[in-house]
Amino acid sequence: MNADSTQTQQKRHFSGQLKDANFAYLKQSRGHKNAQPTRQVGFLLLEHFSMMAFTGAIDALVTANLLSSRPLYTFKTLGLDGPTVASDLGINISVDTSLASQVIGELDMLIVCGGFRTRLQPTANLLNRLRQVAAQQITLGGLWNG
Q1: Pairwise CA distance, residues 146 & 126, whole Å
Q2: N or C terminus: which one in the chain shows less Cβ crowding within 10 Å?
């Protein structure tokens, strides 16, 4: 047996053995009457937020949706000012809306995303808005130093 045929056989075996393996984790509860509504999560991106922490959190929500028979989470990105926010990597990320928008009332959870170079002292405006969000019984959370 030559190296090419061994490699092909290993690929076929690997693919065959693991093909559709993740489908075993899917819940078979389609049409379940006690299903909870989809949770709306907002990610407030602060200047120099940690891209790794943010994408890890998004990945967890997307994976939960993939493993469910129905969407469990939707998410929006929010910023303080302007249409984009610079990450810790210097990559500008477009935001869906601003923290000042009325969309906040539609959220179940707001995650404040900070990073190593994110300012530790929030502005009075940011603090006031976060207090308003908390008063609406929206769960608040943070990533990095958010």
Answers
A1: 12
A2: N
Number of H helices, E strands in the chain: 3, 7
Q: Dig out the tokens for 23 from the structure.
A: 């489908």
Q: Collapsing DSSP states into helix, strand and coil, what is residue 68? A: coil
SS (H, E, C) 7-19: HHHHHHHHHHHHC
Determine the Cα–Cα distance for residues 116 and 97; give it in Å rounded to an integer: 24
pLDDT at 61 over 50: yes
The mean pLDDT of 107-135, rounded to a whole number, is: 91
Query: pLDDT grade, residue 88 (50/70/90)?
Result: very high
CA dihedral 101, 107, 113, 119 (to 10 degrees): 40
